[in-house]
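Notebook entry, structure prediction.
Reason for the run: the old model in the group folder had no record of what sequence produced it. Starting over properly, with the input documented here first.
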Amino acid sequence: MKNLKFYALLFCVLHILTYSNAMAIEEANYEVVEKNSIYEIRKYSDRLAVETVTDNQNNSFRKLFNYISGNNKTNEEIKMTTPVTRIEKDGRMTMQFYLPQKFNQNNAPDPKRSDVELINIEGGYFAVLRYSGRSSDKNFIKHRDILSNELNKKNVSIKSSPIMATYNSPFTLPPFRRNEVMFKISF
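New structure, fully documented this time:
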């Protein structure tokens, strides 16, 4: 009986930590314009982000995290937002952190590093498949293929490389993680 109580308490604590942490983070705004049993189509507005080339995923995350932690030209700390995205551009993998809505090209701090840059991500329509589990390449590829096949069946025109979007910290238990694969589409 003691073990059962311990595991129930541990589950509750982990659950609270997982969800209370996620709720405090600003998420990129979107409008769901269509939804089916496999994916949804979202409309995003333009978004400001900070980006770096991902030679090594951990190194890229660290560069972007340092930027929002105050390693920028104004030494301003910036709140973390979600999702963190990865996309292939010009044959190179990049990682992006979205900036909070209060920032624009005029008031966002410039990066100190030459390999970190502020970018505007053009809005538009995106097909999105949400899944849980680890944010591994294997899990991403599996869901990318599912989404790509569904879009091809429905003759939806894909306009971008697949985008990996992650929403939770690596300390979140895999069943509670929110991951997404996205494609910009014509709609």
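Summary: The chain is about 25% helix and 30% strand.
The old model has been moved to the deprecated folder.
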